[in-house]
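Dear colleague,

As promised, here are the two records you asked about, laid out in our usual form so they can be pasted straight into your sheet.

NAME FIELD: protein one
SEQUENCE, THEN STRUCTURE:
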Amino acid sequence: MQACIDACSHCHETCLHTAMTHCLVVGGKHVEASHFRLMINCAEICQASTNFMLSGSAFHQKVCAVCAEICDACAKSCEEIGGMEDCVKACRECAESCRKIAATTLKLN
């Protein structure tokens, strides 16, 4: 679980930082509402996933499943727009880790 916590924390930081220091500066497609909203949503769900896992919540597997879905969408959007390779990588790593946690936990319940 620690690897997933680390991946979620890293993705939260990367998405938030990229949105605020790259997208807002570059403008254009980088700040279109759907893309920018997705980046902020991704940062928020990653932080929530981290918090659910750290607190030992019985719902962390469900939050991680949603986190994986949002991270996949964010990675795709960032890749399509371009110039955000760090964000794409962080989102993909987080999505993969969250899917593993969600699947493993669900099997145990």
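NAME FIELD: protein two
SEQUENCE, THEN STRUCTURE:
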Amino acid sequence: MTIDLTGAQWFKSSRSGPANECVEVAWLEAGHVGVRDSKNPTGPALIFAPDEWDAFTAGVRDAEFSRGA
């Protein structure tokens, strides 16, 4: 599936600092979610299907991706 990102409205967390070193997200058609690096807005973006986004955000909440000591 190809999703046109031309009109995407990208945003970053309200907890982000003033620096331009953040991850940006865009709500896309058919429930898809785009993710990109704010330092490279014309670079590649990841596109998550709705169920993939749900699994990813659940993993973040559950600290699945945390680096262990």
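A couple of things worth noting about protein two: The two ends are 39 Å apart (CA to CA). The mean pLDDT is 89.

Best,
R.
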